[in-house]
Amino acid sequence: MPDEQQLELAALVTRRRQFVDMRSMEKNRRALMQNSSSLVRESIDDHIEYLDQRVAELDRDIDGLIKRSALWKANDDLLSAVPGIGNVTTRTLAALLPELGKLNRRQVAALVGIAPFARDSGEAKGRRMIIGGRSAVRSVLYMATITAITRNPIIARHYARLVAAGKKAKVALVACMRKLLTILNAMLRDRASWNATPVEA
């Protein structure tokens, strides 16, 4: 069971994500209201400014919690060295995927919801698909993978190889998400730096 500190970090990370989502919605509204009432636009701008402040405050709170834990700080330092992995990813993993580094690659992929499951019945073979898992972690990992495809040589090569083999872009992207998660899992398990990471485990 998670301890009080783990619950607090998870709550802060979740609340930050909620504010970010609200800010995105307000920015979309603002873009649609170029010719609308100036009072409405000012109201939206004020709300966006408020949300910016709240996100910045939560970032400071989350950063403080991470730095007060020797394990979280060490994990943060390890993972942030991986090209494509930023603060939002490392803090989300610490808060919402504390099992990272303690499971094998298949187990952790299933936990996040990016492990393909068979849909077979009798002799009929169904299409493999990903279901369930921790959606907040999956969303952050998706964005990290998008960045990693252009900045991380291992992920970039993996993606290019899959696309060249005829895989659809979405299928290749999910495979890269699993690859990236496998790398991060192995790093924490072995306490290995980015350059020395064994990616199969």
Provide tags for this entry.
201 residues, mainly alpha, 8 helices, single chain
Rg value: 19 Å
SSE run:
HHHHHHHH
The global form is globular
C-alpha end-to-end distance = 25 Å
Largest sheet: none
Helix-and-strand structural type:
mainly alpha
Helix content, binned percent: 55-70%
Average pLDDT across residues? 90
Oligomer: single chain
Strand percentage: under 5%
Q: Ranges with pLDDT <50 over ≥5 residues?
A: none
Tally of helical segments: 8
The total strand number stands at 0
Structural summary, described in words:
By secondary structure, the chain is mostly helical. It is 69% helix and 0% strand. The protein is built from 8 helices and no strands. The chain has helices at 4-32, 38-68, 70-79, 87-96, 105-112, 135-151, 153-164, 169-190. Helix 1 (4-32) packs across helix 4 (87-96), helix 3 (70-79) packs across helix 4 and helix 7 (153-164) packs antiparallel against helix 8. The longest helix has 31 residues, at 38-68. The model has no long low-confidence stretch (mean pLDDT 90).
Question: What topology does this entry show?
Answer:
Elements: H1 4-32, H2 38-68, H3 70-79, H4 87-96, H5 105-112, H6 135-151, H7 153-164, H8 169-190
Helix pairs in contact: 1-2, 1-4, 3-4, 4-6, 6-7, 6-8, 7-8
TL;DR of this structure?
The chain has helices at residues 4-32, 38-68, 70-79, 87-96, 105-112, 135-151, 153-164, 169-190. It has 201 residues and is mostly helical. The mean pLDDT is 90.
